[in-house]
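User: Structure with flavin-adenine dinucleotide, tokens only please.
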Amino acid sequence: MIAVDPTGRAQEFRAEIVIVGSGAGGSSAARTLAAAGCDVLLREAGEHHDPATFDQREETMLPRLYAGGGAQTTADQAIVVMSGRGLGGSTLHNTALCVPPPPAILDRFDREAGLPGGRAAVDAAVADVLLRFGARPMLAADENRSNRLLRAGAERLGLSYESPLHNREVCDRCGFCILGCAYNRKRHAVFAFLEEAVSPLPGCPPPAAQSVRSDGGCGAGLRPKAAVPFWKKIAC
Ligand SMILES: Cc1cc2nc3c(=O)[nH]c(=O)nc-3n(C[C@H](O)[C@H](O)[C@H](O)COP(=O)(O)OP(=O)(O)OC[C@H]3O[C@@H](n4cnc5c(N)ncnc54)[C@H](O)[C@@H]3O)c2cc1C
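Assistant:
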């Protein structure tokens, strides 16, 4: 893989495993493989965003955080497919609700296809992910008027309901989660999987969200554990 670093210098990288995309899936796979001793290169097409530059405006944040500026569709343009573009992928701008896989579904997967390592291993992996994302219960104070009305309506109709876990820390409840958390209160995939596992390329900034400038670059790569983040265009 040939990459161009922030100074425009071309560099060649070799790795045992190259993972494309640093979202929920790619970053957790990269960390797990790196922790198991593999030499992993994680490639990301988007920027490493600095939350301090998030302005809570749709016209600036959709083009920055979403593939196709938030207007990505299926080939026939019938369905909008919103997905993230940036280090951390869609976890940067998602709604921060953490819903573990329902036990009945895991049981069925296990019965019909066999879960890798068995149900106990998957339960342990789910617990690890929830811990890393900082998943926590929603407090009554976290509910807004719409939530309270929905709850009252469910109670009146005799419907069951529950509040999901969420991965915001000291949330100000501004309601702009899907435009990226300008207060950096969401424990997204960079916090959950990449920070501790990544070692920087000499001369390049580490991936701590606050410390990397947002520069409109269109590519980034980083190597968990054994080496290398860099934050500019990548050519393969
Ligand atoms: C608005 C919104 C709200 C959501 N709210 C929730 C929620 O509350 N709770 C929840 O559990 N889920 C939520 N989701 C869904 C959740 O965020 C996604 O399911 C999850 O992030 C998907 O993980 P992923 O790794 O498959 O992809 P993503 O997290 O989308 O990551 C994909 C990454 O791959 C990169 N990439 C793609 N192609 C290339 C390439 N060729 N080279 C290099 N990099 C590439 C992209 O730039 C992106 O960073 C929400 C999603 C959206 C859009």
